[in-house]
Write a structure and sequence with these properties.
Radius of gyration: 15 Å
Oligomer: single chain
CATH class: Alpha Beta
CATH topology: Rossmann fold
Number of domains: 1
Low-confidence stretches: none
Structural class: mainly alpha
Number of strands: 3
Distance between the termini: 39 Å
Mean pLDDT: 94
Length: 125
């Protein structure tokens, strides 16, 4: 189902507001927490709403999902998302919101995902 322009704009505005709030929460946590994680989950609502500590308590991983995240949002906010963490393992769920929110083609969404992975490989080999 394709959204009408007005609906899509409303959705974008809502996601902009909520993602800004989530990023501010992550920024605060980066400034106040001394705990560093070796495993970080990043991405969209599939990550943000995943009850990581309930399902994988032994993993001791950090959940840094952002509902509505696009590859563009992730790339623009990597410093806030990761903070001082230097993960050995990174789990990623991104790309689907590019198709809806950015109205990207499949090729454009794929390229966005590839960009994210390339940057992550450079920063966290």
């Amino acid at each position: 189902m394709k959204l009408h322009k007005v609906e899509l704009q409303g959705l974008r505005e809502m996601i902009q507001k909520t993602s800004t709030e989530v990023l501010n929460t992550y920024k605060e946590a980066n400034e106040t927490s001394n705990q560093l994680f070796d495993t970080v989950f990043i991405g969209d609502s599939m990550i943000e709403y995943f009850k990581l500590n309930d399902y994988l308590p032994e993993l001791k991983a950090l959940n840094r999902g952002i509902a509505g995240a696009t590859t563009k949002l992730i790339l623009e906010n990597l410093d806030i998302i990761f903070g001082q963490h230097l993960p050995k393992d990174i789990y990623v769920s991104i790309g689907s919101n590019d198709l809806v929110l950015l109205e990207a083609t499949i090729d454009e969404a794929f390229y966005g995902v590839v960009q994210v992975f390339n940057i992550l490989k450079q920063r966290y080999p």
